[in-house]
Amino acid sequence: MVSFQARLTLRVIFLLAMLFNGIAFANDTTVTWVQLNDEQRQVLNPLAAEWDTLRPWQREKMLDIARDYPKMDTGKQVLVQKRLNSWSRMTPYERENARKNHRQFQSLSEDKKNELRRKWMEYQKLPEPERARLKAESPDTYKDAD
């Protein structure tokens, strides 16, 4: 049997290890905007106005992004900022559609995903007048192409 003293010592060591590793005791999903540290606020700034209204799972996902951000290369950081800015400007309806599209894409086979990626890259290489023509001819197909 492990003595009470030994169990208490182990718990204290565990709690100290958590503190020194930067693990928060409070549920991170309940952290308000003002409770975020400077680095987190800097990364998540596009969401500042709505942070305190985000659902717990949304906050958790955003905190994961902020945690990983310093380890990202510059190109990935730029992409993250672009996506956060874009997301922050979307209406709830647009966000739900984006989630739905993402779920649909994730459910595809790898071959189909790769085919869509290839087509997207081809589309991105087109000159702007050609893209505008395609959007005008098939607005439903190219509605999310920006």
Number of helices: 7
The mean pLDDT is 82
Structural class: mainly alpha
Stretches with pLDDT under 50, minimum 5 residues: 14-26
Beta-strand level of the residues, as a percent range? Answer: under 5%
The span between the termini is 65 Å
Number of domains: 1
Helix content: 55-70%
Q: Provide the gyration radius in Å.
A: 22 Å
Taken from the alpha-carbon principal axes, the silhouette is: elongated
Q: Main sheet? A: none
How would you describe the overall organization of this protein?
Mean pLDDT is about 80; it is low at about 15-25. This protein has one domain. It is mainly alpha-helical and about 150 residues long. It is built from 7 helices and no strands. It has helices spanning about 5-20, 40-45, 55-70, 75-90, 90-105, 110-125, 130-135. The termini are far apart. The chain is elongated. About 5% of the residues are buried.
